[in-house]
């Protein structure tokens, strides 16, 4: 049942009342007066994503350049990485938790503040598409674990073994020491967060990951948490995050960045402030990476990270490039 239909159905008022506050927190209805003024010639269409996932931005661009929606573009775009078995932090081929479960987290958010999310999803290679189904076909926002998996089967998704030969071998090797460490930029995290603006000027975003490799079973990071790993406000812009999710959640990073842009900061300034807030809470810690990426309604983009090494991909009428991002620390 479609969410709107569900909410209109008065016989389901109890469930609607339960879901209403969550929906309200996703729909941003704040006043327009603080929104940065739009320039006469915004850059659009445009797509950006965390890290150098150029096949993903190319796919999203294919959708956008044909007049497709930002929502379709981000879903199609991040699915490229979910399908890539060589990417060992997203989708099929993602590394498992310490008990050997491959569990995926993803979310998606559209121009109207609708959003959907799946956490701890197993055996399904495209969590972002399940998240979109949660958004469009249920009155809810987040489905977890077995329920999310069951829902995916009901929606026609196929059961798949998400391990690859490579990740199985690495896991067997890891078990010899069972040491949990977050190696900076060394790909035990490489989440894809993607933000796009379509021809109409509407913004959408998606984020998908297998989370931190060898995490405690049951752990969920920032990536599927609306406001933490991703946030979109069609009046202002969008933001997404990569890196150690615990730190992003503690500052509700992506929501913070969008709100900073609402108050007049550029995407670059907002990302810098977001990282600085995190570092203010971690004065003596240098052992983790966070990368923020943001776009505003004008199609201006920016990024900032804790340690050097984070880049983002951008595809717009100006070209397709990998953008180096400035960092809080100069050396890791
Ligand atoms: C998480 N933020 O699960 C994700 C991991 C990540 O690049 O971003 N990897 O905490």
UniProtKB/TrEMBL annotation:
Q: Where is this site: Cleavage?
A: 190-191
UniProtKB keywords: Signal
Q: Which Gene3D superfamilies match?
A: (Glycosyl)asparaginase
Q: Which SUPFAM superfamilies match?
A: N-terminal nucleophile aminohydrolases (Ntn hydrolases)
**Any signal peptide, and if so, which residues?**
1-24
MF-aspect GO terms: hydrolase activity, acting on carbon-nitrogen (but not peptide) bonds, in linear amides
One GO cellular component term = cytoplasm
The active-site annotation reads: 191 (nucleophile)
A Pfam family annotated for this UniProt entry: Asparaginase_2
Q: Keyword Signal, does the record have it? A: yes
- PROSITE patterns with a match to the protein in the record: PROKAR_LIPOPROTEIN (PS51257)
Q: What are the binding positions for substrate in this chain? A: 219-222, 242-245
Recorded hits in PANTHER family, A to Z, give:
L-ASPARAGINASE, N(4)-(BETA-N-ACETYLGLUCOSAMINYL)-L-ASPARAGINASE
What is the protein's given name? Glycosylasparaginase
Q: Which organism is it from?
A: Croceivirga radicis
